[in-house]
Every structure is written in C-alpha cells, then in structure tokens.
C-alpha cells in the first residue's frame, strides 16, 4: 500500500469506498505528459531561485523523464490510493530519487498544478481542433469549386424558396467553420495563461519566478490573481461552448446529408465507406456515420452543461467539485475531434446528383420572386408585384402548371405590364445568375467567394 503523501495529520486509514469515490487517476492519467512538463519547469525555476540545489533539480528532471518513459512503455503502475496523476507521479519520483523528490512540491499546490495541467492539455487539443477545422474548411472549398454550376433548391421553412448554387450552400458551412475557428483561437488566448505559482490559493512565501516558468512553458501571460487562478474554470466552459457551437454546425450539415440521401430527396449518394447496411433489410444503405455525428452533438452539449453546473455554486476558491470538470471536457474533445475528422473525409466523397437537384430547383414556383422583380423593373411597386405573382401562383396550382408554362396572355391577366421578354427572366439559371449582390448566389459571386476562401486558407 503506497503511503499517503498528505498522511501526517491522519491517524486512521482511509475508507476504501471513499478512496475509490475520490480517486481521479482513472481519467486524469491522460494528463501525465503535461504534469511532468509542468513539474520539470517548476524544478528548473526552484533551482534558479536557489530554493533547491542544481543537483536536486537534475535528479528531479531525470527522474521525471524516466517516469514519462515508464508510462509510455506501459510499465508504470497507477495506484488508486494515490488519488490522482500528480500524487502518482510524485510518489514514484520519491521512490526513485528519495529526498530530492520530496522537495518538488515546494511552493506549489495541486490546485495550481491541476490548473496548469488542464491548460497545457487544452491548448494542445485546441491546436488539434484548429487543424481539423482547416481540413474541413479546405474540403468544403474544394468541393464547392468542383461542383460549381450545380443548381439546387434553396430552402426556407424547408419549403423550396429560391434556386441557389450547391457551391453557395457548401460555402455557407465554410463560413460557419471559419467562425468556429475564430472562437477557438479566441478561447486559446485565455487558456494560454500560466496558473502555476498561485499555489493553494494565496500565492507562496517562497521567492518564485512565475515569469520564468511562463517562458519555459511558452505561456504568453501569467495569471493576475491567485484566488481566481485556482477557483475558476471559465476557460473550460468557453471551450465547451465553442465545441458545442461547432458540433451544432456539424450536426446541421449531417442532418442535411441524411435527408438528401433519402429517396424522397435523392440529392446525394453517400460513399459506401461511410454507410452501413441493415441486418434485416438487404436493400438498405444507412447513413449511420452522419446520424451519429448528429447524435454525438448531445455529448458535447452535455459537457457544456456539466461544466456550468459544477461551477455555479462554488464559493471561492478551489473545491473538489472541480475535479468533475475533466471527464466531460475530455469526452467532448474526443467526440468533436472524431466528428471533424470524419466530416472532412466524408464531404469530398459525397456524390451530388446534379440532375435531381436541378429538377427540384425548378419546381415549387421557385422563380416567383424573379417574376415579381421583373414587374418591379417595369415600374410596378414591389408589394403590388408580389400580390400579382401570388395570384398567378394560385392559378398555376389550380391548373397544375409551372409559372413558365403560362402563356403571355395568362400572365397578363395578373399583371398587364408583362412583356414578351418575361420568360428569359424566370428560368432557374437566370434566377441564380441574377443574384449578383455581394455574398449572393450568382456564379461570379460564388467564384469570388471561393477565391477569398482560398486566400484565407493560404494565410492561416
Ligand atoms: N484531482 C484534483 C482535481 O482534479 C487535483 C487537485 C486536488 N486538490 C486538492 N486539494 N484536493 O481538481
């Protein structure tokens, strides 16, 4: 049985259930690299400040590096009774190097140590998310470029609204993921602050040099207030919020592909590699990957809520409640990374059914606005044009016709201003080409948007 590193004050052994209940080693062991990196920087600083000797520093560093290797070789024995990753490593260090190991914890507490470990871990993870987001964004731009010219129905209220380019639709997601990228980068600024040196909550009486530690660990800033440093987890919460928003974007897109792959839409064929069959219905090809992408959004949202609820009732400063921050965070990070990776691989392999999309784009009176706009250019006020076209649509519905199938005479019944040039203005292609306003769906606007996206990707 490993001896408790804080055992001095206690006369009774710990209850076994209590021990299992409080241990976090089962999940915080994934912070081992960060914990060791933090301890090495701390030891260097302690020696520089004359708090430990250079020889003690060297023994500590060597010991910690060996422990890292033991863990990576799978030889390290994590002990539940040693609670967490900090005490497991420190205990082993002392086992290996004796007295010097017992000096490592001078001028720090597990409270600032865990804050450091999470920040080191999270900034690495955010880096990974940023690079996955870049892959996703590049995949969207490439697909948009490849599919340029394909027309699909644009929807509002899930009713066909106006025809748009498929590329324009794809680039809408490019914008969402670009904002996600900004959110993570912004979040990173507040993650990237050194907490070590706050100690338990009040700072330390030893002459430490926090700025030196920050330099060693590549933190651009040092936290300002020791109580705040160990008490808050807002950087985790905002990261979970950014993850939730990103997962929401992925989920909406997944939902669209699921719908589009159904026979009812027939807009896409999903790559076999990302679908599964049914165990009972031989004809089926199910969009499981996309469904799970949509479903796993729940886990990410769940993490955000867990973090918020853990923190909401805690008076300052540290409480063990905060140990509950990790599993939710880890799970959300793992989930989001997996979703982004899959999405980036899947999108370029989707086969878009241009004919079905184009056909659907022509239905549902999707060029009604273009007819109204035509009338406006003939001098009819928009509201009157709107009404005239609305009446024409009702007539079409009764007759089972499309607007473009009405004769000139029929059209003039609703709007006498209609000229014989009207038909060219109410084709689907014309409707798309006409929307040349900045950020609109006209091919040259979309082409320009692709160009801007390409430049943005090249700069990042
Ligand atoms: N395992 C703890 C956590 O995750 C580390 C800090 C423990 N500090 C303490 N005083 N019990 O928050």
Layout of strands and helices, then pairs:
Blueprint: H1 16-22, H2 25-28, H3 32-48, H4 54-72, H5 85-97, H6 110-146, E1 151-156, E2 159-165, H7 166-191, E3 193-194, H8 210-216, E4 221-222, H9 226-231, H10 234-260, E5 268-269, H11 288-312, H12 325-346, E6 351-352, H13 354-362, H14 368-377, H15 382-399, H16 408-414, H17 422-425, H18 428-434, H19 443-459
Parallel strand pairs: 3-4
Antiparallel strand pairs: 1-2, 5-6
Helix pairs in contact: 3-4, 3-6, 3-8, 4-5, 6-7, 6-12, 6-19, 7-10, 7-19, 10-11, 10-12, 11-12, 14-15
This protein binds arginine.
Can you walk through the features of this model?
This protein is mostly helical and 460 residues long. It has 3 domains: 7-106, Fumarase/aspartase (N-terminal domain) (Fumarase C, Chain B, domain 1, Orthogonal Bundle); 111-150 and 169-201 and 217-354, Fumarase/aspartase (Central domain) (Fumarase C, Chain A, domain 2, Up-down Bundle), CATH 1.20.200; 360-459, Orthogonal Bundle (Ribonucleotide Reductase Protein R1, domain 1). It is 61% helix and 5% strand. It contains 19 helices and 6 strands. The strands form 3 sheets. It has a two-stranded antiparallel ribbon. Strands 3-4 form a two-stranded parallel ribbon. β3 (193-194), α8 (210-216) and β4 form a beta-alpha-beta unit. α3 (32-48) runs antiparallel to α4 (54-72), α10 (234-260) packs antiparallel against α11 and α10 packs parallel to α12 (325-346). The mean pLDDT is 95. Arginine is lined by residues 24, 28, 84, 110-111, 114, 320, 322-323.
């Amino acid at each position: 049985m490993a001896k408790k590193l804080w055992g001095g004050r206690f006369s009774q052994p710990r209850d076994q259930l209590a021990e299992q209940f409080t241990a976090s080693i089962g999940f915080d062991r994934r912070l081992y690299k960060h914990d060791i990196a933090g301890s090495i920087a701390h030891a260097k600083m302690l020696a520089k400040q004359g708090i430990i000797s250079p020889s003690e520093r060297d023994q500590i560093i060597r010991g910690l590096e060996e422990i890292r290797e033991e863990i990576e070789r799978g030889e390290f024995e994590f002990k539940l009774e040693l609670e967490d990753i900090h005490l497991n490593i420190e205990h082993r260090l002392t086992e290996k190097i004796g007295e010097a190991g017992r000096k490592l914890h001078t001028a720090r507490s597990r409270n600032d140590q865990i804050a450091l470990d999470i920040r080191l871990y999270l900034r690495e993870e955010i880096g990974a998310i940023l690079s996955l987001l870049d892959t996703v964004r590049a995949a969207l731009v490439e697909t948009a470029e490849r599919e340029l010219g394909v027309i699909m129905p644009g929807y509002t209220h899930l009713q066909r609204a106006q025809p748009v380019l498929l590329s324009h639709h794809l680039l809408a997601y490019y914008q969402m993921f670009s904002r996600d990228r900004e959110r993570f980068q912004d979040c990173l600024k507040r993650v990237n602050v050194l907490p070590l040196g706050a100690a338990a909550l009040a700072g330390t009486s030893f002459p430490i040099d926090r700025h030196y530690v920050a330099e060693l660990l590549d933190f651009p800033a040092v936290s300002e207030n020791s109580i705040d440093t160990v008490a808050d987890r807002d950087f985790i919460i905002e990261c979970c919020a950014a993850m939730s928003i990103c997962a929401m974007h992925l989920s909406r897109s997944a939902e669209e592909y699921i719908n589009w792959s159904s026979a009812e839409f027939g807009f896409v064929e999903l790559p076999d590699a990302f679908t599964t069959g049914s165990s009972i219905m031989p004809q089926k090809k199910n969009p499981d990957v996309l469904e799970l992408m949509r479903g796993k959004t729940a886990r990410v949202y769940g993490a955000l809520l867990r973090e918020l609820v853990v923190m909401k009732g805690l008076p300052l400063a540290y409480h063990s409640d905060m140990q509950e921050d990790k599993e939710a965070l880890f799970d959300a990070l793992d989930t989001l990374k997996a979703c982004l990776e899959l999405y980036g691989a899947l999108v370029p392999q989707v086969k878009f059914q241009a004919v079905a999309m184009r056909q659907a784009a022509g239905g549902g009176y999707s060029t009604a606005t273009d007819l109204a706009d035509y009338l406006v250019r003939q001098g009819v006020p928009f509201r009157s044009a709107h009404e005239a076209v609305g009446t024409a649509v009702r007539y079409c519905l009764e007759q089972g016709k499309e607007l473009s199938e009405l004769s000139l005479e029929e059209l003039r019944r609703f709007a006498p201003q209609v000229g014989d040039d009207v038909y060219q203005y109410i084709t689907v292609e014309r409707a798309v080409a006409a929307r040349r306003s900045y950020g609109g769906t006209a091919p040259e606007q979309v082409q320009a948007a692709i160009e801007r996206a390409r430049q943005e990707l090249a700069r990042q």
